[in-house]
Amino acid sequence: MSPAPLFAAPSSDHHEQEEGAVLRPRFDAAGLVTAVVTDVASGDLLMVAHMNAEALDRTLATGIAHYWSRSRQALWKKGETSGALQSVAEIRIDCDQDAVWLKVAAAKPDDTCHTGRDTCFYRRVAADGRTLDASPGRDSDAS
Amino acid sequence: MSPAPLFAAPSSDHHEQEEGAVLRPRFDAAGLVTAVVTDVASGDLLMVAHMNAEALDRTLATGIAHYWSRSRQALWKKGETSGALQSVAEIRIDCDQDAVWLKVAAAKPDDTCHTGRDTCFYRRVAADGRTLDASPGRDSDAS
After folding, report:
1. Where Mg(2+) is bound, by residue (chains A, B) (predicted)?
2. Domain boundaries B25-108+117-134, CATH class
């Protein structure tokens, strides 16, 4: 027995895909949608990750963020070992349903990035467009 | 003559890639990085798009957001015909340099999404996890 499909299939009808009330994730050739993750309180961008159907289903079912690790090729319940779980306050999906937006509350905000920071986006592209500045107050090397 | 490389190549040294001060975008197999686009004033998530090297270079050189249209397989200067240009206030890059965060000021905020909304993320995944609610006040069908 195969399990019931987790979601509806993407529709070839643009109106249904973009204006409809049915979740129809458009997974890419690798079976993934992009997940943009922000802090529900501050609105800050925390990270960008990817979800396969199982990760999206687990996230919806449990309210805890699950992703697909492309490097490990495995389901990734973020914080499962560190305790840095992300509780999902809201999920949105974009017009063509190939990207989701998770608003989360992080149990350990300083463990959001594997580099030990509260966001993965800690470097700004500098004025010359070729070098990077660490964000103000965020350069852990200088602390 | 081939042009000079636009950016440094990704480094196999994790420390250089994650802590270094050189822009080393890690384009994927399709030559793309993910671009997360937020409103510089409100912080709201506007859209998710993709950039190839040329789009990133044009964005850095002009301060106007350029993307790569995967559907049209072409460089996409957003708003070139509609006037809905995005002026880039800041660009950040993530730890492994495969995603960028653009904070923009949109010339025509209501034209951000091709559906005629000020964000592509106008639907929330409903409590049942399978259907979608339009965001409060954002359901253009009801207006």
Report:
1. 94, 96, 98
2. alpha beta
